[in-house]
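does this look right to u?? iron/sulfur cluster version
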Amino acid sequence: MLEEAYYQKADEIIEHYGKKAASLIPIMQDIQAEYRYLPGELLTYVAGQIGITEEKAYSVATFYENFSFEQKGKYVVKVCDGTACHVRKSVPILEAFQKELGLSAKKHTSDDMLFTVETVSCLGACGLAPTVMVNEDVHPKMTPEKVQALIQELRGDKK
Amino acid sequence: MGVITIDGRKVNFTNEKNLLEIIRNAGIDLPTLCYQPELSTFGACRLCTVEDDRGRLFASCSEEPRDGMVILTNTDRLRKHRKLIIELLLAAHCQTCLTCEKNGDCKLQQLARRSGQTTIRFENYKEMVPLDFSSPSIVRDPNKCILCGNCVRVCAELQGVGALEFANRGSETMVMPAFDREIGTTHCVNCGQCRVYCPTGAISIVHNFTPVWAALNDPNVRVVAQIAPAVRVAFGQVFGFRSGENVIGKVVAAMHRMGFEEVYDTTFSADLTIMEEAAEFVERVETGGKLPLLTSCCPAWVKFVGENFPEFQDNVSTCRSPQGMLSAVVKEYFRDRKNNPDGRKTIMVSVMPCTAKKMEAKRPNSFTEGQQDTDFVLTTKEMVDMVLSTGVDFDAIEPEAPDIPFGFGSGGGVIFGVSGGVTEAVIRRLVPGNDQHTLNEIAECGVRDGAEESFIREFSIPYNGMDVKICVASGLANARKIMEQVKSGEKEYHLIEIMACRRGCIMGGGQPRLSNIKKGIVRRNGIYAADKETVVKKCNENPMVLSLYDGFLKNREHKLLHNPMFCAK
Amino acid sequence: MINSREALIQTTEAAKATLASYGCRILVCSGTGCIASGSEAVYEEFRKLAKDDHNVVLEFKPHDEAEHDSEVVSDVKNALGVKKTGCQGVCELGPLVRIQKGDDVIQYIKVKPENCEEIFQRSVRQDDVIESLLYHQGEEAFRGPDDIPFIAKQTRIVLENCGKYDAESFDEYLAGGGFTALQKALFEMKPEEVVDEVDKSGLRGRGGGGFPAGRKWKQVARQPEKERFVVCNGDEGDPGAFMDGSVMEGDPYKLIEGMMIAGYACGAENGYIYVRAEYPMSVARLRKAIATLEEVGLLGDDILGTGYNFHMHINRGAGAFVCGEGSALTASIEGNRGMPRVKPPRTVEKGLWAKPTVLNNVETYANVPKIILQGSDWFRSIGTENSTGTKTFSLTGSIQNTGLIEVPMGTTLREIIFDIGGGLKDGGSFKAVQIGGPSGGCLTEQHLDEPLDFESVKKFGAIIGSGGLVVMDDNTCMVEVARFFMSFTQRESCGKCIPCREGTKRMLEILERIVNGDGELQDLDLLEELATMIKSMALCGLGKSAPLPVLSTLRTFRDEYVEHIVNHKCRAKVCAAMRTFHINPEFCKNCGKCMRSCPVGAITGNREVGYTINSKQCIRCGACKENCAFDAIYVEM
Ligand SMILES: Cc1cc2nc3c(=O)[nH]c(=O)nc-3n(C[C@H](O)[C@H](O)[C@H](O)COP(=O)(O)O)c2cc1C
Ligand code: SF4
Ligand code: SF4
Ligand code: SF4
Ligand code: SF4
Ligand code: SF4
Ligand code: SF4
Ligand code: SF4
Ligand code: SF4
Ligand code: FES
Ligand code: FES
Ligand code: FES
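got this back:
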């Protein structure tokens, strides 16, 4: 069971978008933004509140890549593998992150819950390819060498 | 309206909703896996693709017919593309036909053959997932799912339940309940309609015939059975009989051969049901009880009410279903030493068109004296399989009559098999007179379909100086619509009859699959024809019923025939 | 409140006066690219400098109003503005700063916070130019933005405001001529006339299909159902294209104005913008613009007293490329899985919530205000007969100047790549250009002088698409590129229809096999068989176009495929599996360490005869190379 506070937060968000089927995606987005994941219990709760079946809500949530039922790290690193970045060698950058953090194509989040590494197709800064987005900040012209520094920097600002 | 040229032949069309229907009406059975006329058009399998004279390819199931179209359905490239599509499906499929419940009746298998597959050039990339045996009614085998979405649409669009949905995306897409829960723990109402529409073995019926065979071979056990009204018009099709033909006599004979000692007819307890339900209805009307009265013979519907309209729980009739009544009576009958001198254990088997009955039998209120009344529920399909396994020549077997004292029902009991039948039987009970004229009048009061098939029928009949307002509906999505209206006060009725399966039990989840769902009409006509053949039309004229009430049932009506549906809560 | 035409004109005049009154404006590019390179810090630095400077009076409207109250402009002549603008298209040169005094503009590139002080002293307070911060080509320095060849050779209609005006300021949008087109439409034209004008302009959808916008609007306008919607497709899924994002974040008001005109023309009262998930800044700027317009009364009921109502809504994507497809997009707005549906009914008849819906791309709408204002004849004068106007492209890959460009339809590839793009990067030689992203195909040398417009490109088995242009040189492996696009579409397939769900999966498997060195020649036939089937049988555009990159590279670069399969050779030296390890006997000391470190026993030999690597057994792990103390092992591609 989730704590009461989660439901209160959900109520606020539901309130904001209105109790209708079309609110499902924005509500889930805001919940995910709040908790860095989509707690399953809240999904069920939201479905009930906005009057859709739980199956439907689950179906929608699993369709879109951005929703995750597992908690993501404090820093969500999105390595751009869009065309511009790919042709400018984005794959080694992804590999550098994975190597540095002990992650793989299957394991996306580091054990300390600090980092989640994913790929994304184009961040809209192709001119500066290859790029990496950490939470909402875009880092331009990345290289595998810069990866370590970036991770250290992020680790540092935790303290 | 117009003319379309299909493979060089001119074909007239009127108001067909898409090109595929016209092609089919023209006698060409285009391969399809995702098209079902009564569901929304999904357009996912692409097998129905045809070509026009300009070389354009498009899916015929979603193409509007236009006058003057020139269509080719069997060009070289269409054949090649279709074949490759099937190959791709097979490659992502477990291909265990020999042990598959659907073997021989599988659309994928048929299409594999029709398209002439000889090799599969790809390896299955899918991980095997465990089967879902959680439901008493249906088994899900996701490894056999081809993602046609029929079950998803049936459950949501026709049944208003939505227990199955797509999850994930792309090649990881699967069909499942929320959070991949076991279907038995969801609000699935066990109607089995998903299984009817599933083209493959991905959803099948839970089989219970193994313990029945064991009981039949056990000399210390008396195995008795009942056969529901709708079974008789669907059973024969597997053995080459006309769809809709009443073959109850042959089924009884075959079952006797298998070792069923007594084979009763559920039409008998359908009569009991009407006796009780009509009385309950009259009482509620006269004493100001809860109205509308909601029928209780369909377990899927009863579960649906509990899940979705709990505030109407007390409106549901307290009568047990015909299955429940007969099993309770039979068990009680053999509990009596007089009828059971050697003191053998009685196993009660019911043969039903219905997967939900398997759930009903296990419901706590289907117990008497702490014992489960119906020990095993077999669907029509399972009984067909049992007969097939015996090798009995069904065609040649001489019909036998069901056994006495519970083997005789009125016409009112027979029509339980179709939507509206319960209500029509109630009306027969309440309206005096049993001449043909009265019966015709009843049949035409609105309780039956008119020229057009309609799944919601509203009408009223005069009774005791009042206007009794009745609604008959089938398909739970329709039920939901009606209940919402009743809830909001928009509509008022005295009696509502709901059957979960559209057209009623003849189209139940346990029936053999019809090649074309529209043939349901034929089964309905079969039921009405069977009614015509009966001598007694009304339950209260069934001598067996009357003598039961006078004797054995006396003071036991409540114990054996009633049981509030929600007492377990 | 601006509730009449007069009020709008007055506000516009006031805004123009304010704009004209600036002694100097410091325009800091604040597109996603420049922010990534640190333009926020530059902006802050200029603010601080301006604030500390008592000789100038400040104006900070409307940024961060909560934090800094806008200050009173007392001496109008000397007013100084520090502004954030939209992307100018040359993000690689960012952060970009323009110093604008009247008509005179200095364009600085790669500005760091430490440069600001100097710029402020020399170029803001005085009229001096800092040579080192200008754009250079060879020895030549370029002073103004329009002098830079990359920009000078473009024709900017859609992007005209980007870089010139404060992207978030309603006033600056007005001052630059904003909302005059809406005025003209509302007060001087009937809805049908607006539709006609757009129709006559020949404007075709910029989202990929190139369907005539006017025709679409007409179809919606004549539907019997009166409730209608205007939807803007800002999903911009092509990985490697960012034109629409730049418009949404760089000129949000223009997009909204275009949609308002569409709403008026087609009788819709609600507009939706669907923005892809990765564009948080577009969402923020659009939200802000909508809030401002609602506040002043330009969005809402009875706009300018005309009785026209229009409300705007924003939906954020949630990570599904397929939601760029019209019916999937509307499904997503409705809160469903973004699975395309069969047509008919078409979106114009039954779109969003099964109501008639105009669905257009960002760039399509952004063209509308100018068309209304300057007329269809003017618009037709740009571009070609059947493809009028301009098109934005995102120019990336192995090219000297990457960035966002806008050129008239019909411009040749050669002009784009060599005149604007400055030729290939690092003197490489041109091999191909992938146009239209994962739904497109590649054009080669022989197409360099063909005009880029909807029809011609289609002729060559590619599409203009949304406008992604990836330039490739000899260092690009065409097989790998095909694999890359296929892995994208395969991952993004919604999974609904069999050809796409199962077919792209198999195509990807085969392509992976080939780049991993395990391909066989018959794989090429199988690829073609699958590609042709998917192309003709898939349900939606994603599947129908998914095989195009493979088909087009197979057609043009079949020899590269064959090389990979038969010779295990990747001529671009990209595919790691094609590497072979060799021992150079000149350096080898016959120590045998390599043999011991090989995990699969691919190295044989002994101290006497020396060691050799058996290519067939070698799994290319590199262990031997790493362990050789004498650097005797080398890699050949
Ligand atoms: C898979 C797929 C992705 C698409 N993505 C986009 C997109 O990101 N942006 C866009 O404007 N159109 C996209 N389209 C095209 C749209 O379906 C639609 O044609 C377009 O938005 C209509 O606007 P237009 O006529 O102004 O171009 C996509 C189409 C498909 C099939
Ligand atoms: S579902 Fe059909 S094809 Fe699949 S194993 Fe069963 S019979 Fe064979
Ligand atoms: S059909 Fe073929 S595979 Fe099946 S049992 Fe017969 S021989 Fe075996
Ligand atoms: S049995 Fe009925 S309710 Fe259950 S999933 Fe199937 S269709 Fe839905
Ligand atoms: S379970 Fe059956 S009906 Fe449902 S999608 Fe799979 S194959 Fe189709
Ligand atoms: S309608 Fe009949 S077959 Fe269908 S669920 Fe109800 S009782 Fe069973
Ligand atoms: S082509 Fe692909 S994306 Fe489009 S409907 Fe089919 S599976 Fe979905
Ligand atoms: S490790 Fe180097 S030096 Fe030693 S045998 Fe191998 S290649 Fe020669
Ligand atoms: S690269 Fe690895 S597998 Fe190949 S020879 Fe060297 S050590 Fe052995
Ligand atoms: S492709 Fe990476 S930012 Fe556009
Ligand atoms: S029947 Fe038309 S696509 Fe499946
Ligand atoms: S963001 Fe500044 S030029 Fe693109």
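The domain at 4-63 of chain A is CATH 1.10.10 (Arc Repressor Mutant, subunit A). idk if thats expected tbh
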